[in-house]
Amino acid sequence: MTSIYRFAIPFAFLLLCFTVEPAAATARKLTALVEQQPLVLKYHNGALLKGNITVNLIWYGQFTPIQRSIIVDFIQSLNSPLAPVPSASSWWTTTGKYKGGSSTLVVGKQILHEAYTLGKSLKTMHLVALSHKVNQLGAINVVLTAKDVTVDGFCMSRCGTHGSTPVGNAKARAAYVWVGNSETQCPGQCAWPFHQPIYGPQTPPLVAPNGDVGVDGMIINLATLLAGTVTNPFNNGYFQGPATAPLEAVSACTGVFGSGAYPGDPGKVLVDKTSGASYNANGVNGRKYLLPAMWDPQTSACKTLV
């Protein structure tokens, strides 16, 4: 039986949640009067993914070599000490503060499905089938769908998801992640803050650090789901709320990219003097990325890089 329980949440949905209470924005200005309660992600005593973990990539649909390199470089950046700070690797080290120590991600196999063999309208069962293209325990199989591929729930309730499936007849389970390219379908929901949101404050969008709104948006959602996968791979790790709709390491901090963030504003970011692009993390091969805040178990707070 396949378990699917965690989502990268569309930003427009979050804005709707925030706008239910008109006083929410004002409340952020009263921090001197009202002390915020710590954010706590409870550990549910399940297995986590620690140590060396292979990340296999299944590309479904048309991706350019440059688009693929942006994502591959991001995964390689998570464990590279060579990039200047703030770096993607310093962002990822927070996952090592969770029980069991650090997780080292290594890019494994890459499979190209450029012929749309399952069509251009996929259901969850198709994502699971694609994730089975690589059968490897202790790995994370990442399915990436192109901008012209629709997926059940995409843009409406999710920008991506992660889950697990049984391997053979054993009790062992394999973790998988799915992320879609929202460039032509819903960039205001799944690629914010690189596109104006459908709802809420219409602040100018940030310039995508790799010049690709869709893929830079995928990086945000992939980062969210990789962190959720290693800290809650089988629905009994770290999360807050119901197991069917949990808040995880990064999804508990959705919409926060830098200090001073509030609904509709990503917070403090760095700006490249040449391109004008916004980022907060350096990566390998001169890459720059914008990464969301992550819950730090040592401080019980969402940690940002800048």
Name the helicity range.
Answer: 10-25%
Poorly predicted ranges: 12-35
Number of helices: 7
Secondary structure class reads alpha/beta
How much of the sequence is in beta strands? 15-25%
H/E element string?
EHHEEHHEEHEEEEHHEEEEEEE
Strand order of the largest sheet: 1-8-9-6-3-4
Number of strands: 16
Radius of gyration: 18 Å
Quick one: overall form? globular
User: What is the first-to-last residue Cα distance?
Assistant: 41 Å
Mean pLDDT: 89
Main sheet attributes: strand count, strand direction, barrel closure: 6 strands, mixed
What does it look like?
By secondary structure, this protein is α/β, with parallel strands linked by helices. 20% of the residues lie in helices and 23% in strands. It is built from seven helices and 16 strands. The strands form six sheets. A six-stranded mixed sheet has the order 1-8-9-6-3-4. Strands 2-10 form a two-stranded antiparallel ribbon. β15 and β16 (301-303) form a beta hairpin. α3 (65-77) runs parallel beside α7 (213-231). The radius of gyration is 18 Å and the shape is globular. Residues 12-35 have low confidence and may be disordered.
Give a brief rundown of this model.
The chain is of the alpha/beta class. It has 7 helices and 16 strands. It is globular and about 55 Å long.
What brief labels describe this structure?
six-stranded mixed β-sheet, 23% strand, 306 residues, two-stranded antiparallel ribbon, alpha/beta
